[in-house]
Amino acid sequence: MKRNKIFGAVAFTTLAMTLAACNNGGNAGEGAGSTLIIQESADIPTLDPGTTYDTASGQVVENLYETLVGYKGSSLTELEPLLATEWEANDAGTEYRFTLREGVKFHSGNDFTCADAEYTLRRNLVTNTADSGNWFISESLLGTPANANDDKSITWQRITDAVKCDGDVLVLKLPKTDPAFLAKLAYIGQGIVDSKHAIEIGEWDGTEATWKEAVGQDLMGSQLAQKPSGTGAYKLVGKDATSVTATAFEEYWGEQKPSIKNVIIQKVPEQAARIQAFLKGDADFIEEGGRPIISSQLAGKDGVAVLDDLPNTVAAGFSMNQNIAQGGALGSGKLDGQGIPANFFSDVDVRRGFVAAFDVPTYIEQVQEGKGAARNFLLPDSFPGYDTNLAAPEFNPEVARAAFQRAWGGQVWENGFTVSISYRAGAQTQQTAMELLKKNIEALNPKFRVNIVAKEWSELIKSTNAPKEAMILSAWAPDYADPDNFVTTFYASTGYYGPRLNAKDPEMDALITEARSTTDQAKRDELYAQIAKRAQDQAYYVVMPASPTVFTYRDNISGVGEATFNPMNAFWAGTYWKNLSKS
């Protein structure tokens, strides 16, 4: 996440007046004139749910749009009705029928109907870009994660057979059973779009005549991203390079009406400025910069509340691109000490050297203040399938040195290298981790050089830029609560990161395919243990340690707590804006 410019007093006052004016006479409940201020270092790439696949965007989209089903309270497994009031599946688990909620309005004033749900899911299947999470809903409904450009067997008939309205009932048909299907529908990327509004502003018209033109269409800057219309408790007021503003939707259908009238997310890249604003009470939530900052600069200060030891279902690791694209982080493009060849990381000993050079204990001590533990695999240890019997990789300079001496037939050690690695601008913990890695790598051999580069979040995640990166922090917050969402995402050659890493491992793919096709949990656990061992041996990632979630907020904010915290929500507080109040 990130941000670029701080509002001055005049700009902030003007914005507050604008919000007050556009909502004059509203009745959004107690505290209707209040404003929630959130400051982050990240930009917000999109507001189109059809391509939302990052937490910066997701925290806004999940408050503007709603899905058919959602997670109940803090549970990761129990689902409850949202825009669908009830559903039933056939005995084979291959057909679902959803009864949809009546009396729901979109922000545009249009009524929510089955046609909107049908349009939304068809649009996701049609567009299904590499920047979106539509691959996993496509995999469930069409049997393939690809779009029609990459898989020519996808036809309009297959899409319409998979998603259709039977009167007012939404019918979804799957080619085979998927135990995680309902959980996948809770992901905000399946947020229901106002189809009439979308078509009116120039989005895909939903017809067979034009569907092929929309396949793989880039939605990051779509018309819908600029002018969203959902059924959520908040609607967009405006978005620019430095802020997003939203206001309570007065016709929201839910029993829980928003107590806070306005929400402003500001891009403030300077950590010191965010902290100062927070301590003065000018921001209610901020991107603090990690546990040490909270402990040393925020905890115990007037007006500051800290919530700690919360579940963390994020997995993260430094990924190593095995075929870096031309124009990327290659330097000279040779093993001459001035750069690296495109396939530098395709040698497993290079990867093993980087893994053994990362000092996990020091990172836990310095960044996580001793909390958390090393992980052996990019799967949260709270999830089924995590093998606690497998030891995590150890920091061992001698092992790293031996690996680098073997790499590329000894050329790496003899000639040296210069590699540029990137982190999200403003992310202090990422920067610290990379500085730690840089120090240890360069200490092994004076011919080794690691350059650390800060880049905008939207630049790093864009699918066209990813192939040019040598190493970035690849993190994952689950789309749905099943181990496959992590394992396929990180390790399958057809997953989200596999194509970005140019990592193809037939043995790994076979194990993953088998694990996701069985409902026998003991068998799945056994397969995931094999996958973890294979992944560790092949050193695809420098695995970051687990860390309990901790965040701060101003103590005049209510609705924040362990009982309401759900890590499936993108917003830091683990809940929706509508559940918060401000005194």
From TrEMBL:
Q: Name one GO biological process term.
A: peptide transport
Signal sequence interval, chain numbering: 1-20
* Gene Ontology MF terms in the entry: peptide transmembrane transporter activity
What InterPro entries is this protein classified in? Peptide/Ni-bd, SBP_5, SBP_5_dom
Using the record's annotation, list all stretches that form the Solute-binding protein family domain.
Answer: 78-497
Coiled coil location: none
Q: Which GO terms describe its cellular component?
A: ATP-binding cassette (ABC) transporter complex; periplasmic space
Q: What is this protein called?
A: Peptide ABC transporter substrate-binding protein
Annotated organism of origin: Deinococcus indicus
